[in-house]
């Protein structure tokens, strides 16, 4: 599900420590039981909302190199 904004919520967006100097980054924020993901270069473009199981699946795939596109 993609949301354009969450009115009235102050979100703490974070980037991975390895991507602080890079320009191709995503940012994540916790919003209750959900994890929000957005493009750091286009934060107004919207965000993707994942539940905890979807977030764990995404992290597992990233750690296993399944998203490397090689």
Automatic annotation (TrEMBL):
Domain of life the protein comes from: Bacteria
Domain DUF397 as annotated: residue spans: 11-63
Pfam family name, one: DUF397
InterPro entries recorded: DUF397
Protein name from the UniProt record: DUF397 domain-containing protein
């Amino acid at each position: 599900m993609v949301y354009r904004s969450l009115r009235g919520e102050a979100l703490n967006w974070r980037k991975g420590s390895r991507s602080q100097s890079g320009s191709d980054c995503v940012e994540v924020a916790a919003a209750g039981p959900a994890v929000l993901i957005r493009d750091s270069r286009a934060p107004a473009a919207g965000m993707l909302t994942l539940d905890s199981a979807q977030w764990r699946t995404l992290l597992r795939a990233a750690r296993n190199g399944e998203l490397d596109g090689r």
